[in-house]
Amino acid sequence: MGTTDKNASIRSPGKRPGFRKSLMTLAASVMLATSAQAATPSTAEVNTTDLAVTDDTVTVGILHSITGTMAISEIGSVQAEKLAIEQINASGGVLGRQIEFVQEDGASDWPTFAEKSRKLLRQDNVAAIFGAWTSASRKAILPVIEQYNGMLYYPTFYEGLEQSPNVVYTGQEATQQILAGIDWAVKEKGAKSFYLLGSDYIWPRTSNKIARKHIDKLGLKVVGEEYYPLGHTQFNSVINKIKLKKPDVIFASVVGGSNVAFYKQMKAAGVDFTDEKPLLLTISVTEDEIRGIGGDNVEGIYASMKYFQSLDNPNNKEFVAAFKETYGDDMVIGDVTQAAYLGPWLWKAAVEKAGSFDIDKIREEFAGIEFTKAPEGYVRIHENHHLWSKTRIGQAQLDGQYKVVHETEELMEPDPFPEGYQ
Amino acid sequence: MFDGYTSSELMSIFAMQGFAGLSLFSVFVLMAMGLAIIFGQMGVINMAHGEFMILGAYTTYLTSSFFQSYLPGLFGGYFFFAIILAFLICAALGALVEWLMIRHLYHRPLDTLLATWGLSLIMQQAYRSIFGAREVGVDLPEWMMGAFQVTDLVELPINGLFVMIIALSIAVAVYLLMYRSGWGKNVRAVVQNRPMAEAVGINSAGIDRATFALGCGIAGIAGAAFTMIGSTGPSSGQAYIVDTFLVVVFGGAQSLIGTIISAFGISQAQSTMEFFLSGSMAKVLTLLVVVGILMLRPEGLMALKVRR
């Protein structure tokens, strides 16, 4: 189209300046239109699978619990995802299209998650779902999302042992969090004996299995392994047991309300974590949880995560500032919140690399996609749909923030199926 | 598991373990006392009991924030004030709930179960809307933190001691109120024979409301006390409700003494087994024993002998 017009304007003899001028404007406007089209490819081209994509918008779904017991944890993820979407829109959207979102409430109920994901995929035809938090909710969504070929961006660190073609895991799988944490405790703190303590469900049990195997491999000792029902609030007996066994390290994966009870009772039993006798290393207490537990109850514990709000890099400073500006100064950002923030950005990168919103085309492009503006620094998608990322050790401070004391030199390779655990 | 420990180490561990059991016992007594009054004396299954406890916890949270901002000098003593306030607020709400809802549902125990369960959902969502879904951290004054050093190895948590003292005071107060006061006599009369009690001029509707309010108020005190050892969030109450019913049903619904004996039995069994087994197994075994005993004694440990 553009070429023909240009030829026409060249062929016409330039006798009448007015005519010539109008022709040139026409040519210019056509060229402009053409170049704009290059940035915004036609909808028919980028969407061959009836997704909710129009000439200037694309619709995605957000599916977290904003009511029920899990709301406490999931609201941070919702906030992070909305912030990322807002920022992407401000910078021009995805393939020239502004992102709109449909938000559904999983209500801390796993069948509801399945139901709502079906609604998002079948009725709203969303191009991506950012959501789920617990492994149970992800497992509930999984069959639906695989049946209708959607794509879920899942933010939580989890136990691994899964790799769906329809999920991108933006949090760590278990080995990324655990191995580096234990190595650090052994190398820097000279730990020889470990007490493994967790809530009684799949994530802590799998995590401790991985931890135990690693500890055995290093030739060190596990002096106790213990699980308490979710919501358990009395830890006096186990605290006595720990005092009797005198481990060097308590490796804790207690979650939810139990966390608050556990740390308060440890403190009340006269354990001062800053003495590091024993040292407490957790994989479940982020800045978010500390708000409920209270900084004075956890001061001195160590956490193995990939992200801490206090990380000192320009990306993170920008992210924290934007987050606080949007949601208020008293907000804290935990590991999972940051991982949720990665979801929309990684989706955008994959869509733009594929030049299409189609799930099958995006999937081809995942391996190797990088996000250099990640608050945690830099991440890259592994071909197993998990992220390469660094693991950090932070020490909890009185003000509820972590001070980063160690960081792995290399990105940790995600290994959702570590040998010997299948 | 005791190889390589000196006898003094073992002695002190057992001392602390005994204390852990007693501290669990006082937690159970606190949790169950309010429910025992409502369930035992009125036959109302109050599923919102945990939420009333959390109301007490939030009251404590607000009181502590208030003292921190406006009366920092008195912060060390705010907790006593919070306990009284928690009792009053929960009792007032309890009276309101009784007037609005419960009084229409007497003699329909299954309906009270549904209605109060609905109430618990409403209360949870209200907390979530008002205080946010995240748990709140309740600051304690310095003197309530840490442990009381008895010997080198024996350390008793101060807040555990404090919970014990509260539980003991509540138990004594309830005993005096129920068995040594005129009002308590009226309550027991209404429980045993409502028409006769009314016939001798007892205002049974008023007694019902006051009893329900008392139960809710005690739940509020329990909630205030638990800010020291547990979490304060919109759904934290759910963690207590099962244990609470377990204690009350096991003790025999209509007996306050039974509630205390059952709290003692369950807490000792659980904390001893937790020491020798893992946490989840201890819970499983405790529940199995309770189920076994309830099969032999369906009315609970201390059933009233009544003619049916």
Which descriptors apply to this entry?
heterodimer; A: 422 residues; alpha/beta; Rossmann fold; 3 domains; 7-stranded mixed beta sheet; 5-stranded parallel beta sheet; 15 helices; 45% helix; elongated; disordered N terminus; B: 308 residues; mainly alpha; two-stranded antiparallel ribbon; 11 helices; globular; amino-acid transport (chain B)
Overview of this protein structure:
- Chain B: Pfam families: BPD_transp_2.
- Chain B: The chain crosses the membrane at residues 20-40, 52-71, 77-97, 158-178, 212-233, 239-263, 275-296.
- Chain B: GO terms for molecular function: transmembrane transporter activity.
- The complex is a heterodimer of chains A (422) and B (308).
- Chain A is elongated.
- In chain A, α5 (110-122) packs parallel to α6.
- Chain A is an alpha/beta fold and 422 residues long.
- Chain A contains 15 helices and 15 strands.
- In chain A, 45% of the residues lie in helices and 17% in strands.
- In chain A, α10 (257-268) links the parallel β8 (249-253) and β9 (279-282).
- With 308 residues, chain B is mostly helical.
- Chain B has a domain at 33-240.
- Chain B has 11 helices and 2 strands, in the order ααααββααααααα.
- Chain B has a two-stranded antiparallel sheet.
- In chain B, β1 and β2 form a beta hairpin.
- In chain B, α2 runs antiparallel to α3 and α3 (78-100) runs antiparallel to α8.
- Chains A and B meet through α4, β7, α9, α10 and α11 of A and α1, α5, α9, α10 and α11 of B.
